[in-house]
Amino acid sequence: MKTILITGATSGIGLAAACRIAAGGDRLVLVGRDPDRLASAADHVRASGAGAVDTQVCDIASQEAVRRLASAVLEHYSHLDVLANNAGGFFLRRDETGDGVEATFATDHLGGFLLTELLLDRLVHSAPARIVFTSSVMHYGTALDLDDLGCARGYSGQKAYSRSKLANVLYMRELARRLAGTGVTVNAFHPGAVSTGIWDFAPWFAKPVMAAAKRIFMVPAEEGGRRLAALATDPDLGAVTGCYFQKDRVRTPSRVARDDALGVRLTEVCANLVGLPTPSGTR
Ligand SMILES: NC(=O)c1ccc[n+]([C@@H]2O[C@H](COP(=O)([O-])OP(=O)(O)OC[C@H]3O[C@@H](n4cnc5c(N)ncnc54)[C@H](OP(=O)(O)O)[C@@H]3O)[C@@H](O)[C@H]2O)c1
């Protein structure tokens, strides 16, 4: 029985992926920040047939909480087969976490970065293993300013979100290089335009338009979940690493996302932000 950890598992793509994976009888570790939503998600996933469903409460935007989560995972699971960094959010207004990190970057990239680095040895010892990042098509057409990762010099929700999703792809590629030959694969994907709660940021006057867009243009959460589940468990994808997927196909990520030197510098900056040494093998 495989052990598969999914962050952002209380709703949308993460929950749908967990239900789909559960049908295969594996052990799911669902991570969410709200105990009630987490308990209800676990009931849902159990009903889909999982071999076992465990829950871990963690605000992924809090470095202390991520460290506690990593300790709990290392204590409870001698084997970790899949880490799916899926939690994410969109913030209309700029905010900072208790760690002093802009909220979008903290939630959509840095939390997953820290969790991955803390669990990396366990994943390597569990090889073959997989790491998946839920990124976005919005990583195209944006740049990354390493001196202003929190968009303090000019914030928009879209800019902060796109940059965080670009950071996912840059880090994924750098990590895939570091992990070459270990049996641990790393990939990122765009789940599609998926009708989930992430669009709830829309102000009240835009809600009717958003509701119509969800109905007409977006795919249901199950479709996004299917794409995440495939990257996490499809045997045909077991050897694929360092790739960005869109519509179930490998697609060339943006030019900026392919800047290997930027991926290295981003890894160094993120390690510094979370108080870790630069990971060995970063080059
Ligand atoms: N929907 C789309 O069209 C789309 C497109 C591209 C990429 N994505 C990405 O897909 C991923 C999943 O989003 P979704 O569309 O499924 O939206 P969703 O239904 O809102 O799910 C987001 C998940 O992330 C969790 N989360 C948010 N902030 C968190 C925090 N600080 N700590 C722990 N968990 C947190 C949420 O937990 P709570 O229940 O506690 O809020 C929820 O489980 C995100 O990374 C998103 O950026 C979505």
Task: Walk me through this protein's architecture.
The chain is an alpha/beta fold. 42% of the residues lie in helices and 14% in strands. An 8-stranded mixed β-sheet has the order 3-2-1-4-5-6-7-8, sandwiched between helices. Helix 1 (12-22) links the parallel strand 1 and strand 2. The protein starts with a strand and ends in a 10-residue tail after the last helix.
Number of strands: 8
Number of helices: 8
Largest sheet: 8 strands, mixed
Poorly predicted segments: none
CATH architecture, by name, is 3-Layer(aba) Sandwich
Please indicate the count of domains.
Answer: 1
Elements, N to C (H/E): EHEHEHEHEHEHHEEH
User: So what's the overall shape?
Assistant: globular
- Cα(first) to Cα(last) distance is 35 Å
Can you identify the CATH superfamily? NAD(P)-binding Rossmann-like Domain
Q: What is the topology, as strand order, of the major beta sheet?
A: 3-2-1-4-5-6-7-8
List strands and helices in order, with pairings:
Layout: E1 3-7, H1 12-22, E2 27-32, H2 35-46, E3 52-57, H3 63-76, E4 82-85, H4 103-125, E5 129-134, H5 157-178, E6 184-190, H6 207-217, H7 221-233, E7 243-246, E8 249-250, H8 260-273
Parallel strand pairs: 1-2, 1-4, 2-3, 4-5, 5-6, 6-7
Antiparallel strand pairs: 7-8
Bound molecules: NADP nicotinamide-adenine-dinucleotide phosphate (NAP).
NADP nicotinamide-adenine-dinucleotide phosphate binds at residues 8-14, 32-34, 37, 59-61, 86-89, 107-108, 134, 136, 190-191, 193-194, 196-198.
Q: In summary, what is this structure?
A:
The protein is of the alpha/beta class. 42% of the residues lie in helices and 14% in strands.
